[in-house]
Amino acid sequence: xxxxxRLSLLVIGAAVALVGTALAPVVTASGATPACTVEYSVxxxxxxxxxxxxxxxxxxxxxxxxxxxxxxxAGQKVTQGWNAKWSQSGTTVTAANESWNGSxxxxxxxxxxxxASWSGSNAxxxxxxxxxxxxxxxxxxxxxxxxxxxxPTDGAAPKLHVSGNKLVDSAGAxxxxxxxxxSGGEFMCVQGYGFFDxxxxxxxxxxxxxxxxxxxxxxxNEECWLGLSNxxxxxxxxxxxAAVKSLVAKVEAHGMTPLVELHWTYGQYTGxxxxxxxxxxxxxxxxxxxxxxxxxxxxxxxxxxxDPAVAFDLFNEPYPDRATSTATQAWTCWRDGxxxxxxxxxxxxxQSLVDAVRGTGAKxxxxxxxxxxxxxxxxxxxxxxxxxxxxLVAAYHVYNFNTCAxxxxxxxxxxxxxxxxxxxxxxIGENTCSHSFTxxxxxxxxxxxxxxxxxxxxxxxxxxxxxxxxxxxGTPTAYGIGLRDHxxxxxx
Length: 492
Description:
By secondary structure, the chain is of the alpha/beta class. The chain is 21% helix and 24% strand. The protein has helices spanning 4-7, 202-210, 222-226, 238-253, 293-304, 327-336, 350-358, 371-374, 407-418, 436-447, 480-491; strands spanning 16-19, 22-25, 36-45, 49-58, 67-71, 77-82, 85-89, 92-96, 109-117, 128-130, 133-134, 161-163, 166-168, 174-175, 178-181, 215-221, 257-264, 311-313, 366-369, 392-399, 423-429, 451-454.
C-alpha cells in the first residue's frame, strides 16, 4: 500500500494542559525531551464555532511526511482548514501534510489551522497520535530487543508451489494464502528505532494464527538487509537478517507461510507521485534499483533456499506508469528494467529479480505485482517474466480508493490472469474503519478459490493505516473484525 501515513511512520507526542484558550505542552515527569511535541490552541470561539491550531515540533530524525490524528471529545466537527489536508471520520480528526510542507527537519516545527463547529462544550483533545502511535512519550520508541535464537520449526508450514493456476502443497493438495501483513520491518530499521513495530514474540505470532490465518507477509528494507552505512549498525546487516529469520521461524512454527517481501528500496525519484525525495530506502519507489536490489534478492534467496516453506514477493508496489508516458514503456520498464523514462536511477526489472533468486538455486515460490501500486494486472500475462521453475505467481493489491476496485474491473483484468497462474491479493483493505469493501473483495476471491492478505497487523489508526488490530493480542478493530471472522469461518 502507498499512502503517506504508513510510508513515513513517525511519533509525535505531547501531554497538554489548558492555559486560557490554549493548550501548551506539559513537561514530562522525567524531564526527558519527547520524541516530538504538539501544541493545540483555540484561537477564537463563538456561539456555534471556533478556530483552532496545532503546532507540531519534531525532535527526532528528519521526516519526509507527517499525519497527525486526534479525537474530538464533545462532538466538534472540522469544517475547513489550512496548511494541512484536514479530514474527519466520526470523532477522529486527521491533519496530513500538504505537498509543500511534508519535510520536517529534526528540531523543526510546522503549524496548521482549522475552523470547526461545537455545541454544549468545546472540550479539548487529550491525546495526539500518528498511525496509531500514541503521543506523549518521554523519549524515542524503545527498540525491539536483539532476537535470541529462533525457535525450531515443527515443519507444519506447507511447502507451496505452482500447479497450473493453483497453489498446492507437497502432497498435491490445493492451498490458498489467507492471512495478514505484519508491517514494520520496512521502516523501523532505516528510521533508527529497531527491527519491527511492536512485539514479534511467540505470543504475538500465535495471536495471528488464532485468527486462523495461514500466511504472514513480512515487508523488508533492502538497505537494512544489506547493512548499508546509512542504517544504524545495530539494526543492519547480520543483526537485521537474524531478526527476520527469527520472525520467519516463529511464523512457520505456527503452521503459517512466511511471505518475505521487498518494500522500501534505494534510488532517488522526485517525479509524479513521489513518496519522498530521499535517495535512501525511506519510502516506496516506483521500481527497484539495479544497484542493490538484485544483491538483496540473491542474499535473501540464499538465506531461505533450503526452506521451501518461505515465499518471496519481489517488490511491494511498482508504479513506473506514473513516471512514463505510455503503458508500453511502463510494462517494458517493469519487466526489463534498465533506463526507464522518468526514473533517474537504473532500474532492476522483474526478470532480473527472478534471475537473481533462481541463480542461487532457490526454487521457492515467487510473487510479482503489477503496475499502479500492484493494482493493474491488465498486461501482466503479456510481460510475464520467465521462470525456469514455473513457480511464479501474480500479485495484486486492492483498496477501496484504487482505480481497479470493482467487480467489473476484476472480471475484465484479474479473471484472465487467474485462469492461467495463481493470483494472490497481497494487500486488501479500506480506509473506512469498516469492512464492507473487504467483504466484497473476499467474496469475489473466495468464489474463484484465490488468495488474499489483509493490511495490516499493526495497531495504527484504521482510517489512516488501515490497521486490523488495536492490540497485539489480536483484538480486532472495527475494520479488522471482518477479516478475522471470515478467516475463522473459512478455516474453523
